[in-house]
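Appendix B, example 12.
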Amino acid sequence: MASVMFAREIANLFGDDHVFFLSQDDKARVPLGLPISKKQTAILMHLEYKVVLPDHDFPIGEKHKLIPSVYAACVKKDGEISYNGPTFVSIRSGKHDKSCAETHSDDFERVLQLDEFKDAALTPNNDVKPLVFISVDGGPDEAPKNQQALAVWARQFENNDLDAVFVFTHAPGSSAYNPVERRMAPLSKDTAGVILPFDKFGSHLDASNKTIDPDIEIKNFEAAGKILAEIWSESVIDKYPVIASYTCPPENEHREVLFHKSEEWKAKHVRQSQYMLQIVKCSDKSCCKEWRTNYIDFFPQRFLPPPIPIV
């Protein structure tokens, strides 16, 4: 918790044109053919058709679920990082795709292209803001200590000419304090009473719920994902928009991302621990470009010191 609060305080030191603060996490997987949210809420119903609900909550088929990855920008208000901002939801098939460091990196690049995130993520010159702060939940696909996370964020660090990238997480049991969790409740409420179809283009299952037509199965997952994206795209959270879209599975399976830099580069630019990953530009002009902020004036040692000094 101390590392998270310390990171927020550091972000507050710099102007709004210098800081992009993003909180990310995967929401609970969304089943097909079953109620999405098991909670009570007011539902508008028509009398022109018969409402039919399933008699049981048995799974329709193996891995028949969608993976929503939620990305919440936290904009500055009154000079401090707030819990409000635009939200992006990337929806993937739970059977034909997965959530990993590489998919989070792909989604980060999509966020940078969204008009709704332009003020939060980009400078007036349409460059990515030079100081990027990423709050994660500490799962194996995005934990700061994960070598896959290091590889993808090192790539973003170079491609966008960033001064520094900070990826940090809460201690176990404290992930509820991640700002993105505040976006989860409204999204869950919007799906109360909703059942996503699993057979939009006809059933791809046999009597034993085994897949017999993989091509139809992929189309049915896509149709369900687009319906869910349409529902969430109509949401507004704290007066900020929600953008949701379905991401089709790749033709080839996601490959493990390798850290392509030398150990010398890593020793010079990276500090990695269980709760925080730091990638910081150096002052060697033969290695890195000019600083885009006055970060080095605040931290001449370049890396953030421990929030609690060890003596």
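The longest strand covers residues 65-73. The radius of gyration is 21 Å.
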